[in-house]
Amino acid sequence: MAKKAPFAFPSLAYLKKVFPTFPLLRGDPSLKVLHKKNFEDNFTLKKFSDIFTRYRQTPFTMPSPNKAVILLCSGGIDSVVLWEILLRKYKLKVFPLRHTTPKKQEEKAFQFFLEYFRKKYPKQCQDVFTFGHEFLFSFQKETYHLFEKDQKMRIPNLSIHDGKQTVAFTIPITRLGVYALKAYEYALYLRSYANVDVQTAFVAITPEDSAYYREATLTVLRSFNLSICTLLGDYRFQFTSPYLEKSFPFKTKLDIISFAKKTGLPLEMTWSCTDDLPSQCGECFSCLLRKRIFDISGIKDKTTYGRKGFWISQAGKKFIGRIQSSK
Length: 327
Fold this sequence. Notes:
The chain has helices at residues 12-18, 23-26, 42-56, 77-88, 104-120, 144-149, 176-193, 218-232, 253-263, 285-297, 309-312, 314-325; strands spanning 68-72, 93-99, 129-131, 158-161, 166-169, 198-202, 238-240. It is globular. By secondary structure, it is α/β, with parallel strands linked by helices. The protein folds into 2 domains: 7-30 and 272-327, no CATH class; 37-265, HUPs (Rossmann fold, 3-Layer(aba) Sandwich), CATH 3.40.50.620. The strands form 2 sheets. The protein has a 5-stranded parallel sheet with strand order 3-2-1-6-7, with helices on both faces. The two termini are 23 Å apart. The longest helix is centred in the middle third of the chain and has 18 residues, at 176-193. 41% of the residues lie in helices and 9% in strands.
């Protein structure tokens, strides 16, 4: 019986070979390429916009100062900076909403910024409400093979594209729809029990994200928003990402970290890593994106990274195993 080859940790060069089409990993100095190909469905988006315009004059209106909004926040760069923007620039009362997570470091990052904003904006930053999952979405990792074998189920909703070719992956159901419903439920709770009128819930999705996630599009956000409004007959409720709205002055990830730099927001305290180690590994997909954004911006990355942490974990081994078996 042949012995199994020992597991070998992949190098950064190997990752770039596996993901050759992603400009952030390849070292492309421009992010514009991400906007040339994405999952945005402009035809459907126009239909949604027409419907919302009919019922509330405009698809989206930024609430006026002192109004209350809900923000789905993970503790990552995009959501933390949006938190600061809503508090600092728009003078809004922000009610953070998040789901329970077994990841201690992600929770630690969120709690750091909750206290940070409470001290900086004591009248605007509100207490967090945390909701649980009926089941863990991480189980989806074990269902990939079903989507790969059954062509009827094969819907590539994760795409990496560089203008020449596309590498498509299949990801099972999105959790964004669950978040949209939870946000509306929380808004009803605040209105009913706290006498707080909340008509807007935000998520932090950037235009770059739509280049490789189907759920990271204004089309999908509008579809969830319309579903809730239609179901409950309440067309006042807004569920969107400000970063995707035309009227919002901050668009790209470069805009986001530049704003954070100007305001002194400690981005090194945010959490991007897919694993739950004492420090961010610096080698997983999310960490590589994080490092590349800082590199492109010219802003110093003060994040403390570990070494090969992600790849030591079981999740890392399974991930690499899937890649190697598909070669």
